[in-house]
Automatic annotation (TrEMBL):
This is Alpha-1 2-mannosidase. Its cofactor is Ca(2+). Keywords: Calcium, Signal. Residues 740-760 are annotated as: Disordered. NCBIfam families: aman2_put. Residues 33-258 form the Glycosyl hydrolase family 92 N-terminal domain. One of its GO terms (biological process) is glycoprotein catabolic process. Residues 1-25 form the signal peptide. Residues 264-741 form the Glycosyl hydrolase family domain. It holds the Pfam family Glyco_hydro_92.
Amino acid sequence: MNMINKLKRFFGGLLVCSNVAVLSASGLSPVDYVNPLMGSLSTFELSTGNTYPAIAMPWGMNFWVPQTGKMGDGWAYRYDQYRIRGFKQTHQPSPWINDYGQFSLMPVIGNRINEDERASWFSHKAETVTPYYYSVYLADYDITTELVPTERAACFRFTFPESDSARIVIDAFDKGSYIRIVPEENKVIGYTTKNSGGVPGNFKNYFVIQFDKKPHFSSVWKNGKPAAGMEMAADHAGAVVGFLTKRGETVNAVVASSFISFEQAERNLKELNGRSLEQLKSDGRKQWNDILGRIDIEASEEQMRTFYSCLYRSVLFPRMFYEIDAKGRPVHYSPYNGQVLPGYLYTDTGFWDTFRCLFPLLNLVYPSVNARIQEGLLNVYKESGFMPEWASPGHRDCMVGNNSASVISDAILKGVTPKALWADLYEAMVKTANSVHPECPATGRLGYEYYNKLGYVPYNVGIKENAARTLEYAYDDWCIWQVAKLLNRPQEEQDLYRSRSENYKNLFDATHKLMRGKNADGSFQSPFNPFKWGDAFTEGNSWHYSWSVFHDVEGLIGLMNGPKVFTGMLDSVFSLPPVFDDSYYGFVIHEIREMQIMNMGNYAHGNQPIQHMIYLYDYAGEPWKTQYWVRETMNRMYKPIPDGYCGDEDNGQTSAWYVFSALGFYPVCPGSGQYVVGAPLVQRATITLENGKKIDIETSDNAADNYYIQRLIVNGKNYEHNYFLHSDLIKGRKLRFDMGSKPNKTRGTRGSDFPYSMSR
């Protein structure tokens, strides 16, 4: 080695060591980089995440949120609002799905009951927001509110001014609620039935609130007006408890809830275990650092803030919907049949979004969590006769597809799901694939009779978004086929699902080289506008959905007459102007607007159908284009700020895309056991797996402009493939990416280096 190279290595090493020293000296942990406000500057017209600051534990049953929106508004917290109406227990997965089982607490001075009267001005400068602790100064009352959650309980501390009318308003919300004050126990109990659907008639969220001081005043209220007595059942019931306070005096309240009973709510209160707010805050911080710290990265400060903010979003949903009974066993209220039953249950996720990479992230980094989720999915089948597709908390009529098949098969094929469940889950997949829920057509397969007979869902039979359904059903059939092979099901059965997995070909229009709706008589829909959103597709157009052949990209390449035409079509998505046809909706939906304003042509990363498309260059011999566009998307479309996303975050999916992509790989086809190589954003990363193994990722020359992989080394050996195997990664691997500013057009260009395709 000559002297110049020695000096380069020496000073380069100093720079790396210096960076590590700075990060270490900062004393920051993974949770310190999280901004729960990322994505909260959103509206109906434009989503920059459509998130709210979820003050919660990972996958916790209950979240808490400072409520700026009016009761029932799906936008519970908006960054551009400056009045807080209450501190709400929430279970909302999305503003479009809205909330259920919500109630709130709000400290005030004087007689202020309804949400408009009691709302107080606040400033973000006097607000502390972390996943495990929230604090805000309520200016109208000179009150500071602090909040720390556990999975099913929470601790509040209210610091009051000197007052003879310091009060806490408890709002059980409308649509049927109950409240009772128990003065001898410094306690308020109640329930709320408020929901947005997906629940049986006996649904209730029971809550208990215990104060550390005896109130000098207490009253119930009805429909925003004071009422006599200590108990109230009404459309909209609530309570007020009052205290005589000196300046700086605190009132503490512990809160828990249950979907089962008041007794179970009291049991859930024991999660706090007598710990002070400071102890709970410290323990919550440790819990978050344990979960987030499973992936330890080194990158620029902004990248670390973005990464851990995204990872935080990736471990919120699906949420626990089970509780722990007196004997320490998991039990749950079933939102499917209204009974209290043994076992795990999780909810509040839409598989149309999250099958793509949120669940693969769980399978890689948090498999024990997904093992319980899979047990819960089998419970859903036992209780309703179907796998869920969008659950909140029960079946919801939202989105398309039968992507529970992907979620189940990926977990089984990666060995995450307990083997004892495999056969029953396979039965559930087959049943759900060949029927439709009688009351919730988004569950099961709407149009399955046409699909099974014709090989597609026709455009002209009154079933909306039919082409999207066909494409997703075909991939879902491939998922079923993979499990059928594993279970050695009868060959005729295996052949059936293998054959159906080719149904995507039935919608390919060779004239346009795009997917197109098809009528029952075999003719294509006409006229055809590939820029028309909706209609035959779901929240996208043909340019977005034509790539939804996750399991057979090679087959799609063949339909498009080879790799050059295929990559040219991929290029066109970015080079086309952001034109659109919104006539199906009659107005510009927010997903369209988000594509239009991002200056990436017709690429619509703000919605899920196209998020894997960037990685498809890896299947056609031009991996450097994947590397370029992955880095461009991470750099341009994600920021750790209130308008930090480029569309709906959607229960962790859009966040998990960033997490995977920043690490350098992405699960294009869940169920294949492969991750497709991209371009890592991090300087270094270590993924600590639950089996004790580690995936160490190192990059060299990974400067801001060095988008391109020059060489990839795995366990010390040169690696040419454009994919990693899950079975290899979980054994522990050392990955080194040597990056550069110019494409390496010889690496990963052979057919043998391409990721899995069914046709290969």
